[in-house]
Fold each of these.
Amino acid sequence: MRRDGGPAAACEGLVRIYWSPSGEVHALKGVDVVVPAGRLTAITGPSGSGKSSLLRILAAQDRPTAGRAEVAGHALTGLSARRLRALRRRHIGYVFARPPQNLLPHLTGREHLALAARFRGVGRDEAQRHGAELLDLLGIADRADHLPGQLSGGEQQRLAFAQALIGRPALVVADEPTSELDSATTGDLLAAVHELTRTGTTVVMATHDPLAAGAADQVVHLRSGAVAHEEVAGRRLAVIDGDGRVQLPEEALARFAARRVLIDLTADGVVLREPS
Amino acid sequence: MTTLRPALRRLRLRLVPVPAQALGLALLVVVLAATLVSAPLMVAGAEQGAWEQERERLGETVVGATLGSSTQARRLRPGDAPVSRATDFADAVTAAARQAGVGRDGLGAPTTFTRLMDPMAWFAPGGAGPVELVSLTGAAEHVEVVAGAADGTGVLVPEELAAAAGVGPGDGLTVAAEGSPDSPELRVSGVYAAPQAPYPGFWAPYGYLHRPVWNPQSGNLEYPPPVVIAPLDLAVSTAATLDRDLFLEWFLPLQPGLPVARVRTAVGAVERLQVTMASPDSAVAQLLDEEGYQAPVARSGLPTVLDRVDTTRALLEPPVRAVGIGGGAAALVLVGAWAAHRVRRRDDELRSLVVRGLSPARAALHAAAEAALPVAAGLAAGGLAGWALVRELGPSTTLPSGALPQALAFLAAGGAAALAVVALVTAGLTARLDSIGSGAAAHLLGRVPWLAVTAVVTVVAAVPLVVGDPADRAGRIDVLALVVPLLVTVVVAGALTAVLPRLAVAAGGRLRGLPVGAFLAVRRVLAGQGAARVVVVTTALSLALVVYAGALASSTARTVEVKAAVATGSDVVVPLGGQGATGLRPPDGTAVVGTENDAALLPGDTGTDVLVVRPEEVAGVVRWDDGLADRPLDELMADLAAYRGDRVPVLLAGPVPDSLLEATGGELTLDFDYYSLPVQVVGRTAAFPGQGSSEPLAVADWDAYVAALETAGRDPALVLAREAWVRGTPGAALDSLAAAGYQADPARAVRTAAEFAARPELAAQTWSLAYLRAVALAAGVLGLVGLAMHAVAQQRRRTVAALLLRRMGLDRRASDAASGAEIGLLAGLAALVAVLVALPASALVLRVLDPLPALQPGAVFAVPRAALAVVAGGVVLVTAVGSWLVGRTARRATGGQVMRDAT
């Protein structure tokens, strides 16, 4: 976690364009997101909305085509592949959607944590101590010497979180971590993740699961490569970018069939009205 | 124990985390190591094999060293009797050999042989006769003594002499020489049975002492004088008493079973012996000076033999090295494929590490560490296998130790290369995992039409093979000859697999009428993309190599056999003296033929040789190949004998234009400048036994030809050079001819088919192709194993689909049948491409691989039945084993686990 009080990650005007044989694909079209430290942030949106692209950039696996992305205090733009890997190694944990993707079939839970700690450059004693804490916190201490094949799906994902968290990275990025879990197990896992955020851990996860989104401190909803809205403390917020662009919620957009509005500035806000 | 087990587990996880994968790599490295090690060992083995072949063919006398001299003085002073010091002379030469250390360098101690230069006679009350007095070290031990025993003071006489002179052990045999007043008496210590032909090893060099010769004046066989074997001292003293000089000969045999490297030192030892004897301080030099003896002159066939051995090695080394390196490179490609497969199989694991910051270099290091143990095990097993295979199946069972360091260096390089390939492939694929999308370079490469590019490269590379002159290449197997057929296979297999999806579209709904298993198999094969196409191409490539190598090897073997039969007529060709023409009957299995060269065939003035045969003798003597003519030999000979016209009937062999025969109706003239003979062509052959050059050969009927010669006023005995064609060995041939009254022409050497086949060009090519065949076989096995592994991998990918199909009602038998049919179709497709490409390609390449293009006929193609059987067997085997493996994989996947792992 960041101890300077700043956000764990921040993106501004983020653009990501892919080149394919059929032409350019604009996956992100100027996304502004702030991931506050010590919180659980969920990124939601339909398929193709840019969730995975944003997640990859937040996980320092990719660089933006344009715009600014800062993760754990490091601007990604201009970072070499080597520096990007170093950033991932030291400051970012990652959890895949499918449990088998996160774990090596021939290592026990404890060995997974030891290997992850070695990657992060954590000393053996510290790794053991922190590993034990995480296993306790996630409720799988008694399963630490089992192989992944001997664990349930929920236990495997908890172990994946423990592995991502060892060494206290600034940010843990999870890609739909509950997609393969039943609702009870999802609830358990989310509770455990909440416990983690209370200890100062920052978690950002992409999800389609309303349960997971509901458990988040902040929800960023993407649509067509841009932020449609954010939800913080149960309130839905539209996002205005640096150029003054704002995306309306679907139901608000439906009111303006002509795609033209009148804007009235009032004392307590801004009113959009259909031109008569 | 409690701390040891986790430590061992950690070690195992670090070195062999996935044992099945490690085993696969180890097997590939076994092939890599065996291929790399076998190349230098094969070259060394061929060198040794060529030497052993030459030693066996030429015999000990030729490969040993012989020193010859005599006691006949170069200058004679009054009162000199140089022969009396012959024993000292013999001892001095023996001592010089010891001093020169010839034994250290592979030569045995010299045996001394002496023989009186002039004839000697024996006298007894019952008669008299000529006798040969010889002394030969060890002779007494190599004869069967039938009465008495050998001792140091008496002589051994043959049974015939003992009977004629009426002497036995303890008696005296009186001998005398013309012009000598003395008649010394030799004490007989024993009686021996004279050795009979064929003479055993010890007597082989001295066979002339016992072999009868034909006397043309008397018309009878003349037996040489009986051989009296005496100790050296007694032979010398007898010669001195009779005032006769002695021939002296020292034979230094080559020690048996010597490796070729030591044989080379033996040449140096002979030279050292000459130097030692020439030294002014040596006893030999002093005796030469004092007694005026002839200086012993060494002669040995060893340098010539070693030249042939070196030529064989020089011809064999480039192709073997090319095949070895090519095989090693192919094995390394497979190691690379293994590394890629490892990454794919452990994609999840690698991705999870990459997102945590695993660098390509570190991934490569991990992969290399995991590969280290399998590579080491593979190197050890492959090295041993390569050594054992070359030793057991190669040219010689003795592999010179000098080849070992080079083989070990190849092994180490192969191991390092395998680890490097694993590391590089892993690093590359990890870097790809670490990047999003594909770069501009990858896009560009993806747009290249690789099949078309390969086709163009193939056409360009094939041009020299198609238009090349066989004479320019002299049978060399170079990279081009190896690569072009493989490129053609890649293009054909690639094109075929590219067409398959279109066939699927064309077949449309018609396939739905097939049973479920067959339908699934055909659809899977027709829809094969990516990996399936690569598998078909690589399997076709490996099987094509098997067929190609088999075709080249069997065709070369047949070519060598046919050329040997054509060049030498029969197993043994013995040139005969002119007297052999008169009224003798050749022994069974022998044909006496006449030859006349440098004729001109008119019209056209084509240089032609003439072979005159008795048609009834030829069959059973010549080694006939059906490819030489479009009719059997019997029919051709019958046509020759049945001709009743006034011309000489001939068979025309070799390159004569058909148009010439059509225009003249086969009525031609053989012109010899001073006379000419009208001939009628009664048959054509591509070549005929006895055709020693590329010029045409006219094979004429003996009686008609002799009659025509006499009509032309020529003496057949003077015009025709005669030779006997005999089946069997040279020794037996000479003996049987001598017994029948024929005498070999001493001015012309006996030729054999074996000697022809042992020519360095032929031996080198035969061994090179045998090596290519062995490497190709390994490639074929790997190709089929790869196909089976691909089938298993496909089954793993289709686990969910297979489970769903089963739940939809597809029974296990139909599922297994579909898998088996799919593997069989893929393997059959690859085999079909391999055979269709490799057979014509080998026929094309064979033309320029003719090792002796100057000799008729050209290279002869032989269908590689064994290779085709191996390919067919391999297809059946891989279908059976692959089906079983796929079925087992399918049965191991439990429904619950499959659905849980499915995305």
Amino acid sequence: MIWDWAFAFEILPVLGRAAIVTIEATLLGFIIAALLGLVLAVVRIAVPWTGWTISVLVELIRSTPLLIQIFFLYFVLPKFGVVLDAFTAGVLAIGIHYAAYCSEVYRAGFDNIHRGQWEAAIALNLSSWTTFKDIIIPQAIPPIVPALGNYLVALFKETPLLSAIAVLELMQTAKIIGSETFRYTEPITLVGLFFLAMSLVSAALIRSLEGVLNRRTMR
Amino acid sequence: MTEQPMVRFENVSKRYGALTVLDGLDLEIKRGEKVSVIGPSGSGKTTVLRMLMTLETINDGVIWVEGEPLTHMHRNGKLVPADINHIRKIRAKIGMVFQSFNLFPHMTAMANCIEAPITVLGMKRADAEARAADLLEMVGLGQKKGHYPSQLSGGQQQRVAIARALAMRPKIMLFDEVTSALDPELVGEVLEVIRKLGREHDLTMLMVTHQMGFAKEFSDRVCFFHAGKICEQGPPKELFGAPKNERTQQFLRAVLEAG
């Protein structure tokens, strides 16, 4: 038999610790992506002359592989005096990469806000900060939660790329177990199952969040 | 010395590319005056309101509010285009009600009415709520404070929008075809609120309207716009009773026929 239950149970605790690193990287990466993406989208509207620069930046990030960006932050930035540890560099790269995607999602959300909402905000003399914070963002976010959620799951599934710069997340840990014991079947399968389970759970969570948000805005 | 006009358009032009929407507009509105703007669509009448609310920039001229420039500011003895701080200071005197209401759909009627007083005027929540409650009462919606716009009829939404604009204590109120999006049976309740405002408040009002009957009865002066210019203006009795300009006559005839 190629599947050894005893071995699988033996490596579970190690993989469990690595899973925590994966989840940390996912959450931190997504927080960066969601916030930076929002900042990019807001700045593009609030400061019109930045539009072109931000478009180029977003296109540049979306059109190059994430792996290259990870390598860039980890191996190239130190040449300019910026030394980041592997986890930080990896999380930053993932966050920035997905921020580019998220900013487009936010932009679509903002585009969907009726022009009259902006005009009412002007007529009430609201500052641009208040307009975004109280009027535009609360209306723009609920419809784009599913799209943002998809990027959360996509980002999560890309965290194994961090193994390329030796972050001890799930994939890297599985590879180490494999190379030390010459048994790849159990660690790789368990890692795959973990990703499957987590993806399904997150998808379900996003769906219920979507439901809550829809109920609130349909009032 | 005569009193400063509340609003003065001085040779104001608005162009979209090759299209001239307003051509050298000169218009003065006195404090407390109620002015109706009528005219065919595309005549630039809504643009007048939108420029005054700073929703549109202007290409030429200066708009003055109580003797201060709105679109410009004084710097080294010259008039230069206004920055956002100056614009916000002057436009605080102006409120606007829109054809499509433009209430904030994620906020209750009450929240719609206290948002700007709290964030812009810095009012305490309790004070803002008390004032908003009075205003909602005044527009006949005292019982609907906790309702969301989607739970209100068009006429009710528009009355909330009027209360929301009044909560900022404007000196000038702009009404942009405020009954055009309403079912006929809801027009009356909104006009009644505007009448009441006219009676009880010393507001300067400028309204674009298709309700000729209301313009006739309510306004001190009616301006007929055609092709980006004021074609004819005067007291409603004269303009509706004995229009001098041929275009005004044509327009009024067409409107009357349409019923």
